[in-house]
């Protein structure tokens, strides 16, 4: 391998990718752009979803159920210096194991979900991926500890790289009008929106008439299985609680720039998730990267990132604590100012330049390690 290639390895990335409307696609686009900015050539094999690719970085498409597509994707990845597999159980079936098995180039698997209670099939798939890959990247200490403690894997292969985010390019806005509590992301059961709707009734006495905005389209899998039942149930819950005028829903799937602008208008971001196991939250990282204070239920990634003072963590089964936290966010400007300042302090370390540099350094290491074995 030529020295310049070792300095700037070429990447093949297998993943969901825009225009697919999901967090994994947005993450992969950010990483691909960050690597390209660092001087690496990135070719993306995009998981097909019926939409036409919109990026010149896309060099192929992957169809889970097609053996011909699997073979073609393997060949494309093998033409690169390093293969990066963005793994999520919602995206890949068992075919992903065939891909990793037949790769001849150094392979980095990015584990977007490390489940606390996996099915036997999910556990086996993760353990096989770690065994076959040169390195596996997780995005939090909680995910690292869980993978190394609860799965039969080689801890020496597991690397933590903080999830990347797009940093704001404009100064924080001076917010005016009704203060907004914001939850965003693909909608579906487990989002915990009901918790905040229930709490809004106790905030009616506040001056300024605070509102709760839930932004984001319904998750495609939820939409296919249940339609808009979850969103409609939340709308009805707000009506029944007498807070319909204080709760609004925006079903647009926003671009990165549009979402960044929306986040900047919020008084605080609320992550009221049902999950007690979530070790990776892109929404949380994006909120902190935007310099916004956060109220979250006590899922592991929130406990980890908000511990230095950028937000408030409340127990899942403590509605009074949630209501108190929201009230403080809306009535204590000194506290929220301190939290926003801490979020802004953390933000630079969460930008894509930092994450992409870490991935590039890791790629150089796995290429060098593989070369040393020859």
TrEMBL record:
Any matching Pfam family: Glyco_transf_4
Glycosyltransferase recorded as keyword: yes
Domain Glycosyltransferase subfamily 4-like N-terminal: from-to ranges: 23-164
Keywords from the named record: Glycosyltransferase, Transferase
InterPro entries, alphabetized: Glyco_trans_1 (IPR001296), Glyco_trans_4-like_N (IPR028098)
Keyword check for Cell wall biogenesis/degradation: no
Protein name: Glycosyltransferase
Organism: Mycolicibacterium hodleri
């Amino acid at each position: 391998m030529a020295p310049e290639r070792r300095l700037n390895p070429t990447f093949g990335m297998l993943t969901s990718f825009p225009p697919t409307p999901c967090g994994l696609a947005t993450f992969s686009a950010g990483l691909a752009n960050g690597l390209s900015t660092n001087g690496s050539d990135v070719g993306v094999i995009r998981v097909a979803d019926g939409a036409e690719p919109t990026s010149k970085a896309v060099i192929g498409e992957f169809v889970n159920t097609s053996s011909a597509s699997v073979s073609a994707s393997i060949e494309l990845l093998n033409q690169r210096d390093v293969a990066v597999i963005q793994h999520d159980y919602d995206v890949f079936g068992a075919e992903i194991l065939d891909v990793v098995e037949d790769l001849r180039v150094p392979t980095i698997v990015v584990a977007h979900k490390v489940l606390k209670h996996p099915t036997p099939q999910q556990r086996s798939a993760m353990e096989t991926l770690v065994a076959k890959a040169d390195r596996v990247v997780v995005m939090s200490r909680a995910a690292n500890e869980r993978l190394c403690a609860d799965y039969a894997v080689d801890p020496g292969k597991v690397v933590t790289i903080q999830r990347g985010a797009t940093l704001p390019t404009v100064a924080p806005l001076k917010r005016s009008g009704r203060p907004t509590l914001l939850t965003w992301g693909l909608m579906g059961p487990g989002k915990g929106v009901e918790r905040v709707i229930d709490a809004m009734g106790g905030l009616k006495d506040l001056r300024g008439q605070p509102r709760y905005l839930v932004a984001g389209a319904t998750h495609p899998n939820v939409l296919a299985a249940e339609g808009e039942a979850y969103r409609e149930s939340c709308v009805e819950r707000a009506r029944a609680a007498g807070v319909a005028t204080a709760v609004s829903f925006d079903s647009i799937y926003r671009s990165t720039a549009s979402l960044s602008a929306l986040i900047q208008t919020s008084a605080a971001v609320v992550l009221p998730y049902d999950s007690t196991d979530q070790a990776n939250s892109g929404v949380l990282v994006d909120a902190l990267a935007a310099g916004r204070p956060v109220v979250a239920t006590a899922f592991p990634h929130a406990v980890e990132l908000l511990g230095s003072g950028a937000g408030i963590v409340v127990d899942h089964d403590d509605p009074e604590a949630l209501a108190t936290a929201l009230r403080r966010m809306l009535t204590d400007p000194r506290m929220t100012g301190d939290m926003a300042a801490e979020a802004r302090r953390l933000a630079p370390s969460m930008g894509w330049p930092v994450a992409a540099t870490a991935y590039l350094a890791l790629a150089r290491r796995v290429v060098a390690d593989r070369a040393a074995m020859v």
